[in-house]
Amino acid sequence: MLTLKAMNRFAIVFCILSALPAAAQAPVRKLPPIINHPSINVSAPYISADGNTLVYLSDYSEGGVLTVYFTQRTAGQWKQPVALPRHINTRLNFIRGYALSSDGNTLFITSAKSGGVGGYDIWWGRLNSYSWNDLENMFKPINSTENEGCPSITPDGNTVYFMRCEKMDADNASGCRIMVSVKDNVGRWTEPQELPPYINTGNSQCPRIMADAETLIFSSDRQGPGKGGMDLYMTRLENGTWSKPVPLDFANTEGDDIYVSATSNGRYLLRDMMGKFKTELTELLFPEALRPKGVMKIEGSVNGGNGNIPATYVSVTDLSTGQRAYSARPDPQGNFTLYLKAGTTYELAVDPAESHFTYYTEVIDLTGDANLNTRKISASITPLKAGDELELPGLAFKPYSSVPAHSEAVISRLARLLKNNPQFHYEIQILLEGYQEDSVQSSPDLTEMVADTLRYKIADIDTLGQLYERDSLAVKITWHNDRTRRQAEQIIRQLTQLGVPAEVLHPFTNARPEPDATRRRTRIRVAVRNKP
Asked: 336: how many CB neighbours lie within 10 A of its CB?
């Protein structure tokens, strides 16, 4: 048996090199030596969307038989890979037809094992403490009397792409077409549909839906002139229609290019390539025009502050369109996981089933070159009490204005809470960090004007030529950006229109300079007070 002790020495060197700063993204990156060993062939990688679970083929086995290996990444480091158990690694499998769910906790394989529907079927099993449960057949309508394999599932788990083939054996498939199925409103898979004929041209294989749920990569040898053999292509779902496939020339070779995957940040395509001695797992930087949209993973938990898990609803709204992007309940333990596409700003809300409880909101800005690392959110949902301060991150004002922007949902949620807790008074606090003023309106942000009358004495000469003093007046104009009072009053006005008694609402405002322009902001919150 081949030893892997030397891998640790390579891993140390890799960690040192990877810690060095880089001015730009490398066009090619190899996975670390704990996976890419100079005496082992590794190939056909499938990495989970969150980037923390990987399955791949390796010839590190008795007799060099190709075997599916599995590893996970913890704190940025890959663990020692292990072979999948024998009830998964069987010779009845279409050996490269495996896949992972976005969180890496569900494994899919393609197998002709007994108990299936047709020839080769899609099976699945869950990870349990670094081991895999028994596999279950997906049955009809996903599986049929033909051969199904190579599934790829969107991060929300509601759409699956796979190939349905006329012929399939352990190593090859032919006459394949790409299918898609979605779950209905009770969670059952609907009858699969073929993708359009300009995608299914006679032998389209191995679909890989990216984490943005709209970019699909597949392989074909019948899409037109290519580099040779099976080539990789990309199509995008735009307004309900798939675009014409384009070849991934940056990744295609003269051989067969079929088995690839990518993480949710959408920056690199992971595939196997020939290294100095053996095949290696290598990441290729997507060209900007072909790059899938990046996606942020949200790992959330809800707690009641006393060990109880309150009943809640989780929703996400795209603030640029006002459209709902996500809506679901947490699991019985209060946990929820969702994925948000880059390119816009979202409001995430956790609302209680009991309206006298507090709620949680957070604005998530994924515009520009946003950091798409996994974000962990802990929402404390408790009965409202005196002394609570409720931040309102989803509420903002139109530029240079006291008029709230995108305020309807935020104000409505706040009004419902306040009306169901009439035993308190509430300070509507507007805190400006970045007060500015000038004697002229030198910036569009200086919308407020204060006119001060100055009285002073001046020396003058009367008609007889005598020197005397007389009073004079002057007006001093100051332009500033402190709109906090009018902003607080605007919020109070909207709350009272929704039924909150005006006598329990009190404005509280403050403005202070902030020399660092990047730290300037307006904070909006509600402070809960006992009735006087």
From this structure: 21
Cβ atoms within 10 A of the Cβ of 519, count?
9
Write the pLDDT tens digit of every residue in 160-199: 999 999 999 999 999 999 999 999 999 999 999 999 999 9
Bigger pLDDT: 4 vs 165: 165
Identify the three-state secondary structure at position 532: coil
CB 410 within 8 A of CB 361: yes
Residues of the chain with CATH 2.60.40.2190: 294-383
> Is 146 in a helix, a strand, or coil?
coil
| Cα 24 from Cα 41, distance rounded (Å) | 29
Distance of alpha carbon 298 from alpha carbon 362, whole angstroms: 12
Cβ burial of 311 (10 Å; 0-12, 13-18, 19+) is middle
Phi, psi of 227 (to 5 degrees): -85, -15
Q: Which CATH number applies to 294-383?
A: 2.60.40.2190
SS3 515: coil
Cα angle value 75/76/78 (rounded, 5°): 100
* CA gap 211, 213 in Å, rounded: 5
- Quick check: pTM over 0.70? yes
**Residue 383 Cα distances to 358, 362, 429, 504, angstroms:** 6, 19, 21, 18
Neighbours of 399 (CB within 10 A): 10
CA-based radius of gyration for the chain: 31
Rounded Cα–Cα distance for residues 273 and 452 (Å): 75
The pLDDT score that the predictor gives to residue 24 is 64
| Tens-digit pLDDT profile for residues 507-527 | 999 999 999 999 999 999 999
Q: Which residues does residue 189 pair with via DSSP β-bridges, in sequence order?
A: 183
